[in-house]
Amino acid sequence: MTPIQVIWFLLVGVLLTVYAILDGFDLGVGFWHLFTKKDKERRAMLNAIGPVWDGNEVWLVTGGGAIFAAFPHVYATVFSGFYLPLMLILFALIFRAVSIEFRSQSDSKRWRNGWDIGFALGSILPALLFGVAVGNIMNGIPLDASKTFTGNFFTLLNPYALLIGLSGLAMFMTHGAIYITLKIEGDLAKRAKKWADISWDIYLALFILASVVTIFFKPQLMSNYKAVLVLWIFPLLTLGMIIALAIFNKKDKPGKAFLASSLSIVGMCATVAAAIFPNLVPALSNPALSLTIANSASSPLTQWVMLIIAIIGMPFVFGYTIWIYRIFRGKVNMETDLHY
Fold it and tell me: What pLDDT does 338 receive?
């Protein structure tokens, strides 16, 4: 294990965490999209994410590209072993994008309802399956001596992975509801505040349940925490931010609630990273077969060149993202802004 390998482990984690924060809220908005029947309110929810949703997904592409360049063996194993769920995620994201674009092409109520359902399903399915994928990485997957996945689609639908998947879905539901309260005014914002309260209960309960199951039934995930006690700051940060977001939501402070929700996602991702390090893809039956940051890495030259490219290019991506959010800051006006 070399410093450059550790750096790329951290960089990939940062890219995927930023994606979870940014695309997490618009996936969450998609979940709540069908909880209102008024066309004007559904249009307002789409307008709230309209300027940023496609830019948010850039971070997923960047994270996938970073894995391909820095840890090609991980890319090969995960993208082949998780082929079906990843294809389901891809098709869902595509159909979601098409739904956003096509919804307003006709005034037909049936037409719009159909695309609204497509948008909701295209949001819920990735939100759930991303969590299931993380749950399988935490749990470990069956690998043979050639680092090839030996299971099938139903292997991935194990109870622990489904628990983590539902936890991730609840996290995005809460994140999306808070975003609606932050970006939309009027009665819809008030209802979104209640949605956030409901999903927060589920989020907290599943976080506690997943933590208890992990501590008592997944000892391989606790070894780093036992060896380096300071790592406990990550799950404690997550719990603290989950509690904080509920407090801010009740006090009608959506900006602070959204920040706390974002930090809870940071804490969640850091908690997972600290648990699996230095593994990237733990093997289920034989830890010696696991893909680590050392045995799955590309050459040092490749990683150093990629780091230089990242240092040059990433400020532009961050700068563009900040600029877009600054340009489109403020609330969606239910009377004047319902166009797209």
Answer: 58
Checking phi first, is residue 195 left (phi over 0); if not, alpha (psi -120 to 50) or beta? alpha
- Stretches where the chain sits below pLDDT 70 are 334-340
Half-sphere exposure of 251 (CA within 13 A, CB side): 11
**Which residues, 6+ apart, have CB-to-CB distance to 328 below 8 Å?**
51, 52
Instruction: Say how far apart CA 22 and CA 302 lie, in whole Å.
Output: 29
DSSP 257: H
Q: What is the pLDDT of residues 97-137, one digit of tens each?
A: 999 989 888 888 899 999 999 999 999 999 999 999 999 99
> With the CA atoms of 262, 121, 140 and 60 taken in that order, what torsion angle do they form, in degrees rounded to the nearest 10?
-50
How high is the pLDDT of residue 67?
Answer: 94
Among 168, 247, 259, 199, residue whose Cα is nearest residue 35: 199
- Each domain of the chain, given as residue ranges in start order, spans 3-327
Using CA atoms, how far apart are residues 298 and 204, in angstroms rounded to an integer? 39
- How do beta strands 279-281 and 291-292 pair? antiparallel
